[in-house]
Amino acid sequence: MNTEPQLEISGLEKRFESEFELSGIDLTVGSDEIVALLGPSGCGKTTILRCIAGVETPEGGTINIDGDTVESSTVSKPPEERHIGMVYQSYAIWPHKTVYENVIFPLEHASHGIPRSEFRNRVEGILELMEISELADEPATNLSGGQQQRTALARALVHEPELLLMDEPLSNLDKELRKQMRYELQRIQQELGVSMLYVTHDQEEAFYLADRVVVLRDGAVVERGPPEKLYRSPDSPFTRRFVGARNPFGGRIQTDTAGDRIVRTEFVDVPLSKTEYMSNGADGDVDCFLRPDDIDICGDGREDDRIEMEGTVVAEGILGDRYEITVGFDGTDTELTVHCDQYRDLSRGERLTLGFAPKTLQVYRSQ
Amino acid sequence: MSSKQSLFEATRNGVKGLFGVVLDRATKRVVLGVVTLLVTFLTVVPLLFLLWTSVWSGYPGEFAAELTVENFQSVYLGDFFPVWKIFRNSLSIAVGMTVTGLVFGLGAAWLFVRTDLPTKGGMELVLLSCQAIPGYIYAIMYVTAYGTDRGLVAAVVRNALGLETLPIDIFSPWGIAFIAGINVVPTFYLLTVPALQDMDPALEEVGRVHGASLLSTVRSISLPLIKPAILSATIVVFLYGMGEFAVVSILGVKSGFDVYSTTIHTAIKGRFPPGYGEAAALACSLLVLMLVFVWYYRRVTARKTEFMTLTGRRHRTHVWSLGRWRWPLAATIWAVLLVVWVLPIFMLLVTSVHADWYGQVNLSALTLDHYVTAVTDPQLRTAFLNSLIVAVGAATLGTVLVVGTAYYTERTDGRFRGVVDFLSLTPLAVPGIILGAGLLFTFLWVGEIVPFLNLYGTLLIIIVGCVVVYLPVSSRIAVGNIVQIHAELEEAARVAGATWAQQMREIFLPLFKNTAAVIWFFLAMLSIQLLSIPIMTYTSDTVVVPVRLFQLYSFGPGLAPVAAISSIFIFLTVGFLLILRRNGIRFYELGQR
Description:
The complex is a heterodimer. Helices cover 22% and strands 34% of the residues of chain A. Chain A contains eight helices and 21 strands. In chain A, the strands form four sheets. Chain A has a six-stranded mixed beta sheet with strand order 6-7-8-3-9-10, sandwiched between helices. Chain A has a six-stranded mixed beta sheet with strand order 13-12-11-15-21-14, with helices on one face. By secondary structure, chain B is mostly helical. Chain B has one domain (46-582): MetI-like (MetI-like fold), CATH 1.10.3720. The interface between A and B is medium-sized, with 33 and 30 residues.
């Protein structure tokens, strides 16, 4: 085991017709680490992966894989010289080959330390690990989505690459299968000890799988860190909005008549010092976020300094194993979503008092 | 370095890899470079030599001459050709062809795809089978059936009605335009059917649901959606029409009706001394006109996916009910098919078994003599052999070239992609006769400049011509199908360690094999039928079947032998198509000249 990063990217730039698709991306993936690139569609995350794989050429920046420079101003190695594994969103299973032929391909073409006599064993081994041994002689066109996924993964791992690139590998699977594969990916990563760079737009997936998450927006890194940190208290309102179900609303920091600084919103005022304020700064516009679970419906009040506000039920219904209410406030556009563990028999138009603890209100400077 | 690889192995792999990369990049560059260069040469060079000839005072290949504008003067200001009349004639043929193609082709497309017309499968089969019959045989068929003097049907109708002459004359300009137009109906049909099939029926249904009547749905939703397809089909057929040669030369020769192509042909092959410079100068004005149309055509079809979609996702097509008009309409269409397509073929067969044909069936004098002659005649045997070589050669060269260019334009980020793509379309603007003239001039010059490249008088010049003529259509098929193969399949192979050459061998070519086969057969079939290129470039050693037919019709003893050879030709083509169909290759593909 070495401690050197498996993948190092610095200053990666890619232009698409004069517009920056990627601007100055820095990224590392340590050995045995899973890093997730998280961002909305069109943020450039797939382009980063394609630049690493060498199927797209960046305009600037350097890429090192396993200490070996594969992309810089003077070097641009072709994909076959980069010794990686890759899983495509579409799986890219060759339709004219069987599962076995698909999987053995990297062994036959990539350079690795495995002797030819071992090929069959390796393929069989990896098919077993993926639990698709019985499909070996199946033509690739006969496979279901999940089986294609496993084949693609087997193909990407069979030649023991140190680095595995995955491009939204689970997005074409249905919900149940996705959950299962998410677990399997972790299991396989553990067993093979491969470093993974994982591209996704699904924050659940990213937070579940990754040791570190890198949030991207418009071709630039917004924020990076361990999942817990990004989930609990991200540094930027973009991440906050992107990574979790939160009620976003606007507000302003002002000084009230008593000289205290408060966060003033359309429907409630909260003393600034009691909120979770993510930046230090003067008065001005802020973005506020409140988790649906942190809002309670009056009557089960728990704390003394909770803030109360009155609104009208706009919509209500059972969602999964929870009861969800959307509450509007007179004369404003803001609506808050509230989750309760227990079913309530509320109806639309009903007046309601909501409450929340001020420290659950996250406040960011507007950007 | 990972612990899995020893330093020695790593070094060895590195060295191997370095050489591999250099070699592989070289392979890719050389392969694609050669293909690109070849396409450029084949499409551009004949036109350059044509231009040169038009401003050269001597013959092609004659160095002792100078630049001149005399050719242009005598063509456009003098009276070397009746230019204005030629232009008008060409235009009327093109318009007539386009209208015929539009009415019959689009009508059939809509009826077959979007209505519950009974027996439409059979109708489509008849319509598309006629795609296999080249224009000059069409014209001969019509002479045997509807010709004023030798047409059996015409004679029967004339006698039945007690008329001296029929009001319809297939030798009149509009008659010629109609027959040439019938010949392009399958083309028009095939170019518009995909658009009708691919249209999501929900788009129409939602119009109906929201209150539009059937008619206003068709007008405001269906038509705008397929307008690009109709427009591009119209332009393609119009371009064919402006360059039409075969039908006009067979039917128009009697009344001295001349269009651009026939005038250029006569000026070069039928005049002594040949009017090379004048023919080239005349060609220039047509080329300019055609270029304008091609430019417009490219604008119309800028979105490639809309153009000639061969395979694509097919929606469950919504079918409108024709109600009680179903059967009367079907009967009418069968009657039209009978008159326009079936009867002429039948009359051709009848003619071919008579010793001489004067428009009357003589059951007591039926004979297979002409078929025997056709098979035993050494001249004809040579012609068949030559045709076969041309077909195989053009199909092979064309397929390689077209697959290469399509790969270059669709799969690489090469600098000349746009140029190559454009060049592969330009032959659309160059009628076969003009391209033939250009090739003739080119090789007359080349023979003088580099004697070992002298292709004049060889079959190779015909092969090259066929490849260029069918480059636009075949390259669209290739491009349309390359787009269907996901580029990620190839990238995945590279990422998995394959070089470009290995990737091509293992992934791309196996996946593209079927399309390549279709293109090959398609080119072989069309090349064997092509008249315009060989008629301009043949010499006594390189006569192919279409040329022989043309000669026999123009100078031969009678219609019956011509009918026999035509019949054999049709049998062979249809047989060929049936064999392919049985093997799962279905293409009534696209385009003809």
